[in-house]
Structures are given as structure tokens and as C-alpha cells.
Amino acid sequence: MSAPARLAALGVGQLLRSRRGWLLAAALAGAGLTALLWGAITAEMALALDAVSKTDGILLDPQGVFTAAWPHMRTWWFLALGISPALALLTEVLRPKAVTEQLKGREQLECRRRERRERGARRALGLQEPQRRPPGFELGRHLAGEHLLPVKRGRVLIPLERMQKTTLVVGAPGSGKTETLLRLAHGAATGADWPVFVIDAKGDRQTMERFKELMCRAGRRPVLFPNQSYDGWRGSGREIASRLVELIDWAEEGGATYYRDLSVNLVRLACTAPQGPPRSSGELLFRLERNALAGLWVGTERASGLLGFKDDQIAACRHRYQAFFDAVDGQLDGDFAFEDADCGYLLLNELIYGEETTKLARFLLEDFKHYVAARKQAGDHVLLIVDEFSAIASGERVARLVEIVRSYGASLVLAPQAYEGMGGAEAAARILNAAHTILLHAVPEPEPLIGAAGTRMEIEASVQHDQGRSLGLGSAREQHQHKVSPNEVRQLLPGMCFAIGSGMAQKIHVAPVPRTPAGTALP
Q1: Residue among 392, 435, 423 at smallest CA distance from 246
Q2: Structural domain span for residue 141
Q3: Cβ neighbours for 520, distance < 8 A, ≥ 6 positions apart
Q4: Distance CA 418, CA 443 (A)
Q5: Are residues 345 and 405 in the same domain?
Q6: What span, in angstroms and rounded, lies between the C-alpha atoms of 380 and 378?
Q7: What percent of the chain is modeled with pLDDT above 70?
């Protein structure tokens, strides 16, 4: 093939890979087909007119006129079908476009140009093109909006790559948030084969039973807390000490910080003794006494440091921890931890633990952080769902957890009832910036969250009137508007949500999780 022919073939190939090229090809094909059929069409029209002229006329013999013209009209109609797409395309191209259509066309054109530039940059850098349908699991049905999450025959799939990052599920009571959390847990267990753990601050035993049912259907054996006691004494002495320090609401400023430092030092002395760390709450409380600490550190340089503690200071520290462990009643002295199970549900019931519920949650979150950093198998991925985290941990602690655990192969799904429940403006901003995906159910005040979806250019029209009577004049202007309407979020039906992320928004109806028929025995 000659060089001009190769260049022509290359140009045709490039043209056909674009939408404009396909429109041009369709127009040329339509024009060719029209030219081919036009002679036959005009001939049939002439025959129909000739047949009509031989009758007595429409007024005198309408039935005869129809009978004479029908065979030619039928043939003409079938021939015209061949050129109708070309005529429709020509009409669409030539008709005047409304302002909104022009704006949408410009946005689509700019989007295609940006995608071409991005593909070109990836090819130039030798990077692999992203998969169109990456591995994932079904979330629900597509209703409207952009395709933030892949859609296959109306089914919305959430990619595992997206689930590996932090997900925020926000919704008021009754909005379907719990069903979404169960759907994510079920998908991670069946579609990704990840260990799945839930820390629930609502104390909802019905949800715990549904989680157990789902995990049993997936062939797993879930552990349920407090039905089974948790072993909170895994790890090194320093790791145990850091978990214990999280239990107490220490003063962060003022003169009381002196007593905080004394108590932290006592806990570290009790946990990092040469004999090893404590392995139960009773052993810790036994060590938090002057004689016991002296015996642990006898013959070492740190033994002299005990002389700086007063008896009442040691007693105050011990009483703080004893109050907590009395409320927990041995449920942190069990025989399972995160690394011993492939799924688990940790139910924190405020009716049982009272004001110690928040401290217990902090202890478990700190232990999860140590688990993913030191005790989890390298290369494994784990999912932790924290429901109503605003009730059990400060936003600042959760924000730190989000920023740390992702580096160690852990995913977090955080589920507050509202933006205000994320622990203050600074902590909420940190969590929101760390969240890769937001699943927004109905909430009364969605404005702080819908901004993550970005804006689009819309036409705002105005009409001139005189005391309510239209003058037939008006104006229009372009302006940015939120892609997600706050009122539409407020009106979402239970089970519906907006998936928000990467500057896009997609309206989804979350699929209910499967249920085991009543009377069926679980594995």
C-alpha cells in the first residue's frame, strides 16, 4: 500500500473512532441511500398521482381514489423508510438548538476532550488503562445521574478498589442506612473474601442477628460480642499500655495534665515490666499497687522512679481502671480477638455499659489499629464498619484512625446520622476529605455533604412582568449549581441514596440483602 493510501486509511480510522466521525459516516450513508432510492420514490409518487387522475376525484369517489393510489403509496412508504434516518439526522443537525442544549453540548465536548487528553497522557507515560468494569460486587440499581460506580444492565457495582478506601454512609433513622451497611458487609464477605467486623453503638441486637445470618450464608462463622468475650490483652506491653491510656478522659491542658502524666507512667510501668505485660484485667489491677510495681521492677533503674509516686496517686489511677473493668465485667478477658475470626459483630449496648460505653469503644478501636499494624497477616485486607461512631468515639480519634489504618491494608466504613455527628468542624472536614465515597441517604441538612459532588453549569431564566402579567420578555444566564439538590436528598425514599465521589453524583436504590426463610436452620 502506498504512503498516501496508508495516511488516508489512518485518517479514516481515527475519524471513525470519534462520535463526530460516526455522525459523518451516518450522514454520508444516508445521503447515498437517499440518492439510490430517490428515483424509485419519485416514480412511485408519479404513478400514484396518475392513478388518482384517472378516477372521478376525491370528492366524487374517495374510496376509488384510495384503492387506485394505495399500491403505489404502500411501495413509496416502504422505500421512504430507508431514508427516514438520514432525514431525521439532517433535521436534528439543522434545527436551532435551545440554550440549555448548547450548554450541555459544550460540556460533553469538553468532557470528551479531557478524556482524550488523559488517555493520551497515560499512553505516553506507559500506564495501564483502567478497567471499564473492575472487580466488585452489586450495590443496587441505577436511577439517575453520572456513572460514578459502574453500571451493568441497570445494576450498580461498587469496585473493590473503591471499597479499599474510606466510605462514609450518612442517613437519618429510617432512611435505609443499616440496610446499606449490611449490603457492604455482605459484598465484602462474598465478593472480596475480606474479613468483616462491625462495631455497633446502637445496641441493635436485631441487626446483629441479621449480620450473623448473612455471614453464615456466606459460609463463615461469626463471633458476636458480648455473647463471646473479647481478648483485649494481645500484643506487646507498649501496645496494651496505649490501649489502656485511651480508656480514660484525661485532661489535655491546665494543672490536671500533671496527674495525667503520672497515671500514664503508672500504666506503662505496669504493662512494660520485664516479666511481660498483663494478660487480664485482674492482673493489671493487681499490678497497679506500690508493692506489686516495686516487685516487678526490683533490681532495675526504674525501681527508684516509684519513689516519686504518692500512695493516693497510685490508688486514684487504680480506681479509675477498676471502675471501668467492673462495668465491663470480664468481657475483655475472653479468648478471641480480631485475628482469630473472619467476621465479627461487636455490640456496645449503653444500657449494659452505661457511661463506660464510649471508653470500651475507644479501647476496641485502638486494638483494631494495633491489629492491622502488627498482628494482621501481610497482604490481607480487612473491612471495619463503625455504626453511629459519633456516639462512641470523638471525631478527632476517628479522623486519626482513618488516616492511619489505610496504610496497613484496612478499609473503614463510617456511619454517622448527620454531618454534625462527625465530631466538630475540624474533625468532620478531615473525615470528609479522607472519604473516597459518600453514600448519602435522606438527612434534614445535606448541604455540607452535597458539595463533594461538585457543580454543573445551568441556565437560570428570568421573565419580565407587569404586576403579574407577562411582558413576553426575559433573560438567561449561566451559573454553577450543585449536582445534587438538597431538597431531593431530603425527599429520598428509604433505601435510596446518592453515591458521591470524584466530583460526581449517582442516584441509586440499594438492593436489600438476602434473607433466610423463617424456620431455616443456619449452618
Answers
A1: 392
A2: 136-231+334-510
A3: none
A4: 7
A5: yes
A6: 6
A7: 76
Q: Which of 115-129, 151-165, 167-181, 443-457 has the lowest mean pLDDT?
A: 115-129
DSSP letter at 341?
A: -
CB contact at 8 A, 341 and 223: yes
- Quickly list H helices, 306-440: 311-328, 350-353, 357-370, 395-405, 424-434
Instruction: List, as one string, the DSSP characters of 378-408.
Output: TT--EEEEEETGGGTS-HHHHHHHHHHHGGG
**Direct distance between the N- and C-terminal alpha carbons of the chain, in angstroms, rounded to an integer:** 69
Q: Render pLDDT for 404-444 as a digit per residue (tens, 0 to 9).
A: 887 888 999 999 888 877 777 777 888 888 889 999 999 99
Identify whether residues 498 and 362 lie together within a single domain.
yes
Same-domain check for residues 276 and 222: no
The pLDDT of residue 288 is 92
The verdict on 306 and 347 lying in the same domain is no
Residues 356 and 378 in one domain: yes
Contact of 406 with 165, CB cutoff 8 Å: yes
Q: What is the DSSP pairing of strand 504-510 with strand 136-145?
A: antiparallel
- The answer to whether residues 41 and 159 belong to one domain is no
Under 8 Å between Cβ of 454 and 481: no
pLDDT in tens, 270-314: 999 999 999 999 999 999 998 899 898 888 887 777 767 888 888
Residue 461 in contact with residue 476, Cβ under 8 Å? yes
Backbone φ, ψ for residue 402 (5° rounding): -60, -45
Q: Please name which of 355, 345, 362, 336 lies closest in space to residue 203, comparing C-alpha atoms.
A: 345
Helix (H) or strand (E) holding 477: strand 469-482
Dist CA 7 CA 223 (whole Å): 67
Mean pLDDT, rounded, for 172-182: 93
**How many Cβ atoms are within 10 Å of 364's Cβ, its own excluded?**
25
> Alpha-carbon dihedral of residues 355, 358, 360, 365, nearest 10 degrees?
180
Q: Please report, for the domain that includes residue 180, its CATH number.
A: 3.40.50.300
Predicted confidence band of residue 519 (pLDDT cuts 50, 70, 90): very low
Strand-pairing partners, residue 347, are: 200
- Looking at the fold, whether 498 and 447 belong to one and the same domain comes out as yes
| Assigned C-alpha cell, 372 | 492491622
Cis amide bond preceding 150, omega within 30: no
Give the residue carrying C-alpha cell 473503591: 162
**What domain count does the chain have?**
4
What angle do the packed helices 357-370 and 395-405 form, to 10 degrees?
A: 10
**Strand pairing report for 496-501 and 437-440:** antiparallel
Q: What DSSP designation does 278 have?
A: -
Of the listed ranges 65-74, 304-313, 382-391, the one predicted with least confidence: 65-74
Strands (E), 8-159: 136-145, 151-152, 155-159
